[in-house]
Specification:
Helices cover 48% and strands 15% of the residues. By secondary structure, the protein is an alpha+beta fold. It folds into 2 domains: 104 residues, no CATH class; 97 residues, Cytidine Deaminase, domain 2. Strands 2-1-3-4-5 form a 5-stranded mixed sheet, with helices on both faces. A hairpin with a 2-residue loop joins β4 and β5. α3 crosses α4. It is elongated and about 70 Å long. The relative contact order is 0.09.
Length: 239
């Protein structure tokens, strides 16, 4: 059986009623009239699955994924390999899910690129959360800013294990000079979900801050992103 046919028919009983056609149309109409707030999270996921599974009742699959991952955001952020392990999902469906995730991150980034981020801090937090909150491994990012605190770029410096990322201050300094960045924001995630700074987080921040100060580069903040919130070194008096 080819992949496309597999994705259409996989895991559907032989006598599946055809009323899913009417259900799909009603769901689409509710979305077009009321927007995303008119739908539950699992219904939004159904709409995404429609793109990759042209026929069949995908409501059970959407509800099962919501049960496993707990949120729409966690599903669209899940690794491709992990999604493919679920019965009923093939590459077309995963492609649709990951496109939605990528679009969400790109949209959030477009809200802050080339803009003074200190006056758009809520948007910065939204972007960092969309990008990192559901990553399964720890990642350390640096937001590089120009002389007007406008975002030049966001770069991942290290992608570590689930509980540790190695960060090299010399690499950050080198990029500051290459990009003519005069200030930075440090960002990393805690896959555990708890954004509280660890002893290692505090130590590496102090080390980077000591070096950047000598070179006239400011660190506006160090943000730790968790699934349900964030911690700010500036707000905690650690920077």
């Amino acid at each position: 059986m080819n992949e496309e046919l597999y994705e259409i028919s996989h895991d559907l009983p032989e006598n599946t009623p055809q009323d899913y056609v009417g259900h799909r149309q009603r769901l689409k109409e509710r979305f077009l009239k009321g927007g995303p707030d008119a739908l539950a999270d699992y219904e939004m996921l159904e709409l995404v699955l429609f793109l990759g599974i042209p026929r069949g009742d995908v409501k059970p699959l959407a509800k099962e994924l919501m049960r496993i991952y707990s949120s729409f955001a966690a599903i669209i952020s899940a690794p491709i390999e992990k999604l493919l392990n679920h019965k009923g999902i093939g590459t077309h469906a995963v492609f649709a899910i990951k496109i939605i995730g990528a679009a969400a991150i790109r949209l959030a980034r477009e809200q802050i690129i080339n803009k003074p981020i200190l006056s758009s801090w809520r948007l910065v937090l939204d972007y960092c959360h969309a990008n990192l909150a559901f990553a399964e491994n720890e990642e350390f990012h640096v937001l590089y800013l120009d002389n007007k605190n406008r975002l030049i770029t966001d770069e991942a410096h290290q992608k570590g294990t689930i509980d540790q990322a190695s960060v090299y201050p010399r690499d950050i300094i080198k990029r500051c000079f290459e990009l003519n960045a005069l200030s930075i924001v440090l960002v990393h995630n805690h896959p555990s979900g708890d954004p509280s700074p660890s002893k290692a987080d505090i130590e590496i921040t102090k080390e980077i801050n000591q070096i950047t100060k000598l070179l006239g580069i400011s660190i506006h903040d160090h943000l730790i992103i968790g699934k349900n919130g964030h911690a700010s070194f500036k707000s905690l008096g650690l920077l």
